[in-house]
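In the previous chapter we treated chains in isolation. Here, by contrast, the input contains two separate entities that must be folded as one system, with a combined length of 224 residues.
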Amino acid sequence: EAQVTQNPRYLITVTGKKLTVTCSQNMNHEYMSWYRQDPGLGLRQIYYSMNVEVTDKGDVPEGYKVSRKEKRNFPLILESPSPNQTSLYFCASDGTGAGNEQFFGPGTRLTVL
Amino acid sequence: EDQVTQSPEALRLQEGESSSLNCSYTVSGLRGLFWYRQDPGKGPEFLFTLYSAGEEKEKERLKATLTKKESFLHITAPKPEDSATYLCAVQAMDSNYQLIWGAGTKLIIKP
C-alpha cells in the first residue's frame, strides 16, 4: 500500500529537549515536505526537499532542521523545542516532482510544555 | 503578496442540498491551483489540480472550476460522507514549487 508514515503520532515534551519526528514514504517520490497546521492559519511549509541531499527552507523554517540522506526518509528535527512549536505536523511526498499532488502522512501532534 | 482566502469558514447543509465553496487567490502568475480534502485527525487528501481559467474537473459529486481570480468547488446533492474540511492551495510561477494554502472550509452535511 502506497503511504507516508510518521512517528510518533503524538508527543508531549518539555522546552529545550531535542526531538526528531520521522517520516518515510514507500512510493519512490523525489519531493518531500514538512508542514505545520495551526487553527485559522492553514498549512505552512517548514522545509522541503526536491531530492536526496537537496533541502530548502519553506515559509517557517526557524527552529527546525531536516535532512535527506535517503530518498524514502525525511526526518524533522527540533533541537530546542519551544511552546510556540506546539502544533500538528504533516509530512508529505509528491511523485510529480513539483509539489503538486502531495500524499500526506497521518500527522504528528506535538505539545511543548 | 501571494495570498489565498477561502469562504465561508464553515458551511452546514442538509443532505442533498447543493452548494459551492470559494477560493480567492492573489498570485503574480498562477502555475496551478489545488483542492484537497481533510478528514478530522487525518492528513489532507488530494482531489484536483486546475491550471488555467475555464478549466473544470469532476469527481463524483464534486466539481472544481477556475477563473483568473478564484476557484469554486461545487458540491451536488451532498451526502454525510462528504463532510470534511476542504483546502485550497495555489502555486505561483516564481515559487520554486511551494504551495500557498488557504485556511479551509469546514463542510458539514446533516442527514
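Chain A touches chain B through 25 residues (CB under 8 Å). Chain A has a mean pLDDT of 94. Compare these points with the single-chain example from earlier in the chapter.
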